[in-house]
Specification:
Helix content is 59%, strand content 6%. With 258 residues, it is mainly alpha-helical. It has one domain (3-202, 230-256). Helix 1 (3-10) packs parallel to helix 4, helix 2 crosses helix 3 (50-85) and helix 3 packs antiparallel against helix 4 (111-145). Residues 62-247 form the Cthe-2314-like HEPN domain.
């Protein structure tokens, strides 16, 4: 098949039906949404303190911002799963040649496999960015809802947030702390993608460590996380985030009923 045909075959978007099927096969991704039906301002404007009205107004805006971000996260997942299902033969990602040297991705048949691999990596990288960004949207929402009094530029989904939240809602603070610890690898992978070296590219860098008080440098080895392992990490992170969103929604709704 000519290079142009391989390119056009690889660079496709899923149809509406394919998108639906991808979500149906992995229900947690459909649950990436936070409803605000139960926490909208229940009082009429003239019956409440103006700052309460303003806070509730901003809460709705942050929920909308969060859901927009979650929509991008969901779309990134649909894309990466779509390309993954096309087949990426990178379980065996390197072989040593008898004549010497190493061949990477020996099971790739043609340029088409490389295109699909690229598209999966690109979509995965977008997923990681939107995932961490969604966490900060949650932090902004909680900052306003619980009146934590942080400036907008100070807000982040981190230990300081959970510590301050302890004084307002101990149970939620503890559950968010546990969730944050459980996605430590996701944060590390995202930071590698953004600032250092990505997990899903072959890493030829030298490795430094200390043995018997001496620095030892290792060269000539390579590291790589295959597509199946990346997808497993991503789907686990979706499950955890989905459960956390349910917990937040339940908490905000119950508090609004009080």
């Amino acid at each position: 098949m000519a290079s142009k045909e391989l390119y056009e075959k690889a660079f496709q978007y899923p149809t509406q039906q394919e998108s639906i099927e991808i979500q149906n096969h992995f229900p947690p991704v459909k649950e990436l949404f936070l409803s605000h039906n139960d926490i909208e301002a229940k009082e009429e404007y003239h019956k409440v303190d103006v700052m309460i009205y303003v806070a509730k107004h901003d809460i709705i805006n942050w929920i909308n911002r969060l859901n927009n971000k979650l929509g991008k996260l969901k779309f990134s997942y649909i894309l990466l799963k779509f390309y993954y299902l096309k087949g990426i033969p990178d379980e065996q990602w390197k072989v040593e040649l008898e004549a010497g040297g190493t061949k990477f991705f020996p099971d790739f048949k043609d340029e088409g496999d490389h295109y699909i691999h690229f598209l999966f990596k690109y979509s995965s990288e977008n997923f990681y960015y939107h995932y961490v960004s969604a966490l900060d949207c949650i932090a902004h929402l909680l900052n306003i809802y619980y009146n934590l009094s942080w400036g907008e530029k100070e807000v982040a989904f981190k230990k300081d947030l959970f510590k301050k939240l302890q004084l307002k809602d101990k149970d939620l603070a503890q559950s968010l702390g546990i969730f944050s610890e459980s996605i430590g690898d996701i944060r590390e992978d995202r930071n590698g993608l953004a600032h250092r070296f990505p997990l899903n590219e072959v890493d030829f860098r030298s490795k430094k460590n200390f043995q018997d008080g001496k620095e030892v440098v290792t060269m000539g080895s390579a590291h790589y996380t295959n597509s199946r392992e990346v997808l497993t990490k991503i789907e686990r992170s979706v499950e955890l985030l989905s459960d956390t969103l349910k917990n937040i929604e339940k908490t905000l709704s119950s508090n609004s009923d009080q």
